[in-house]
Amino acid sequence: MVRSARFVASAAAIACLVAPVRAQDDLRDKVVLQSGRVVAGRVVQPFAAEELVVLQGGKRVRVEPREVLQKDLVADRVREFFARRLRHKSSPRAQRYLVDWAEENGLPGLARALAMLLVLDDDDDEPLHELLGHKKTSKGWQWPLDGKFYPFDKFEAALPKQTLRIVGERFAVRCDAGLAVNLRALLDLEHLGVVWMDRFGAELDLAEVLKPIEVRTFRNVDEFPKWGFRPRPYYEPPPHDDLARTFFSGPSPQRPDDLFFVGAEGLLYRTMIGQSDRQDRRDRVCSWLEVGLGMYMQNTMQGDAGFAEPGPLQAQDMKALQALGRGYRLTHLVHLPMYASFYLTDDTPTATNWAAATMFVTWLLRDDNQPDTRAAFLRYVKAALAQRQGDSSSTFDREMGRPIEQFDEPWRAWLEQRAGF
Asked: What's the CA gap between 380 and 138, in Å, rounded?
């Protein structure tokens, strides 16, 4: 393959995916005005109706919608990246060209993540090694980690002590083993971000993720810092760790447990909610809603590791059956606390809470309910989460247009149908 100048190793490449673009230097969004002027930076609220705010380091430039001729956003390029990746899933050559495309289109995190994944299968691809800052020696390619260089076997063996942070566009994964599966996990999370913004961005007026959401994966579940009795993935929002934690389970895992759930939790806080209670690491704005939305995305994303894409919702019959086992009405569900009701214990009531939250959100988001619930539910999501009205029953009643008690029976009838009764 012909060498290209853009693949020459640089100081940034030697960082080995650690810092593709510093936030203060990120001018990759372009807003072209009617006057011909180009405003470069990062668009904070891409779906805003009143004005666009373009972040230029510490400076904010405000643009009126009537002034905008066209927009060229990082988000659009990320979407195109995954459309191409999935379209040519079975072609290694096309995947190789996609690295070039990502580099040329200002997506260094995705370019390097894919390059690293590809070079694991093709150790002779010299330009990819150079892109990643690897050094060629008489003993083969040396991989950088924490300022030192190692042959790959020693590089991966060193991860449990030093860990590696792999940065994409909206997510960053820090891992302690299993480079290939963690690279695929990052790519899956990045596509989750695309699907999340496409499905809910306009209706919820979501903000862009300008700083990667951190996801820490653990190869050994025994080292996973669990919350309750049973290890279960979770996300701690800012101002605390601002970190999603998950782990690999089973003898040959292909994807971390509940990867899309914790990714969606991070997206909820980064694109809409903001911070949680400063005094309580386990507090949430509206627990049932956050769990339900996270599990909705977990059940949406599916497919081979590294090639996740949305599909028909999974495990609906089992979840419906579990939700039918609840001994409480919806007025109780919407007030469940996060830690005590969803994490503290490993028992049937806890599993029922997870199923009930998941299936109530799933039902409310259906676009064929009579009367319609989706539009009203998304208004409620904005009020409860973005406007921080939390688990208020009166907020639910107001935004949904009728008391929450009136939803019990139609929801139960749908659950029975899904469960096969």
From this structure: 62
